[in-house]
UniProtKB/TrEMBL annotation:
This is Type II secretion system F family protein. The keyword NAD does not apply. Its main location: membrane. It holds the Pfam family T2SSF. It comes from Terrabacter terrigena.
Amino acid sequence: MNGLTERIGDVLRDGWSWTGAASGVLLLAGLALVVAGLPASRRPTLDDRLEPYLRDTPRPSTLLSRPAPARGPFGFGELLAPYVSRLGARVGAVTGGAPSVARRQLRAGRPADVDRFRAEQVMAGALGGVGGLVFTGVVAVAQRRFPVPVLVSMVLVGIMGGIAVRDYLLTRAAVRREARMLTEFPTVAELLALAVSAGEGAVGALERVCRLSQGELSDELRRCLADARAGANLPSALQGLADRTGLMSLSRFVDGIVVAVERGTPLAEVLRAQAQDVREDGRRTLMEQGGRKEIYMMVPIVFLTLPVTVLFALYPGLSFLHFRL
């Protein structure tokens, strides 16, 4: 009975300690919001004061605009947006690489919005910090003690891990999209060659191929045609395709079309040759990946199967020698 009473007392004390910690965190969050809402914290910056005088067009009336939908549940997105943007700016100042981020966003088929990506990194870091906090709480409950240094270190590791994981996911999305474009490129190039051989011009061939095909490369070609219809010439629009992607095959493809459009040279054979080159590159890449997979397959054999085999072969002799000694 005494043991049960002591256990109940320990549980109550642990509950009160966690309640006190949560109350302290909520109190600090409330004080931070109060301080952030003071007039001194909401003072307009120099950019905000000069912006109305530097615009080319007058600001439209707010009576004619529709209210923007609330971001997040219960409007918490509107409340947290300024803080997330400030934290994103600090993350960008620490990590750097804004041109690289914009480049990878374009390669992934997304608009180049570095501020949005920094905000996503902040949210990913917050989720990582919550994960580190939960992990530390589980460890504290299991060991019946609250290690503050472990808590701080795990939260910091979770935050940095979340930021790094978001950056890695962007790079992975860009690489996957370019791999899909390389897969689609030979078929698109041969369709263009067939259309050009049938008498179509470069613009007509691109329009026909965009109507008949679907995929990442077709979407990029549709964007080039939209830019051309908006007033840009076709070579400049195609050069935008080469700038948005980091593939040498597409750069050579764009150069071939630009030369054919500007000089009137035959285009069908050039496109067929480029399609064949891309197929050869894909076949060579598959062979290289197969060679790496063979090496990876040797890892369990060398580090697991072989040591066990050697142990089974040597153990009887070693045990016999130990018995004789």
